[in-house]
Amino acid sequence: MQRALSRAVRGADAVIVSDYGSGVIDASMMRKALRRAGRRKPLVFVDSRYAMLSFKGMTATTPNESEVEAQLGVTIGDNLKALERAGRMLVKKMRVETVLITRGSRGMALFQPGQRTEHIPIVGSDEVADVTGAGDTVIATFALALAAGATYREAAHLANHAGGVVVMKRGTATVSRVELAASVAAEGDAAEVFGG
Predict the structure, then answer these.
(1) Phi and psi dihedrals of 24, rounded to 5?
(2) CB neighbours of residue 158 within 10 Å
(3) Domain 2-194's class?
(4) Is 78 designated active site?
(5) Active-site residue, selected from the candidate residues 26, 130, 136, 189
């Protein structure tokens, strides 16, 4: 498994580590693969349900609020000060470039060292059909946008739109380019998404 991971990392622009606690890939395997990648290291995005804090030094993490609460032993809810402390603590403990916390109907919060926290409201309706796979959609869109040259802010807004589209569908769903563009246009969010 380590050899396959190292080969995949070596040729990638971005890598998403989805760790659901099954033990297939852990933080030490990822660090070893990155050392073997040489000078051209990919962007690494982490979604780890139970071991988020062990993935230190990666590019970004996109936990949901309940994962943050469980990892840090805090309660956030509607308390923006608690959210701020938790987001800043993750940035510091994980030594990542950014933390994007998904908050369900409360939207998202983007944390970066030395930057003000950006609170991103949900797009579309808050009457969700199914949240299955929404986190995967968010991290995939966030990673792809950053690998294509977007800023963290632009990537977060685009990921917010992608997540907003898939939660309106039943079951595990995907978002098409057309659906994503329509969501951005409908919300008048082009400046945030495309840096205009």
Answers:
(1) -70, -50
(2) 25
(3) alpha beta
(4) no
(5) 136
